[in-house]
Amino acid sequence: MRIALIVLLTLVLLVLALFAWRGHTSRHSPPTLDLVAGRLRPCPDTPNCVGSESVDGERRIEALPYRGDRAASERALAGALGRLERAQIQRRQGDYWHATQRSALFGFVDDLEFRFDDRAGLVHLRSASRVGYSDLGANRKRAETLRAAYLAQP
């Protein structure tokens, strides 16, 4: 019984190490990001991405409403991102922002992208995992946590 427990524990540690190793390059090399034809990239066919410009109901989330004008909305988004643990803004360029958030246990990096739409008064967002297939709802939860923090900003 004790040997079986040791073997099982060893196998679990090996599997966890394999996931950490497979995610190593993804932690340092972001996927192709940025706007495509003025919009955020569509989510892939895997269930580890959500976006406000997605047409797929499973991956669709609502965009963030502007908080007054563009400047106020940018301040609110920066404040909301500052409240997400292990999140960092990587780039602010025109209408496009890119941020990352690392997982606590293995340091996997997920990407958050934003597009400011002045005409519609919306901040479109996309949250996607760099590795894996399913995220067990982590990106949707992150987007909703970010929404709550954004709307709570003055």
Commentary on this structure:
The chain is α+β, with helices and mostly antiparallel strands and 154 residues long. The protein has one domain: 2-Layer Sandwich (TATA-Binding Protein). It has four helices and eight strands. The strands form two sheets. Strands 3, 4, 5, 6, 7 and 8 form a six-stranded antiparallel sheet that branches. Helix 3 packs across helix 4.
Shape: elongated
How many β strands by DSSP? 8
Strand content: 25-35%
CATH superfamily: Kinase associated domain 1, KA1
Stretches where pLDDT is under 50 for at least 5 consecutive residues are 20-28
- In whole angstroms, the N-to-C terminal distance is 59 Å
Q: Sketch the topology as an H/E string, one letter per element.
A: HHEEEEHEEEEH
Query: Which CATH class is shown?
Result: Alpha Beta
Mean pLDDT level = 86
Corresponding CATH architecture: 2-Layer Sandwich
Q: What is the C-alpha radius of gyration, as a whole number of Å? A: 18 Å
Domain count, please report it: 1
Please estimate the helix content: 25-40%
Classification by helices and strands: alpha+beta
What is the fold named in CATH at topology level? Answer: TATA-Binding Protein
Number of helices: 4
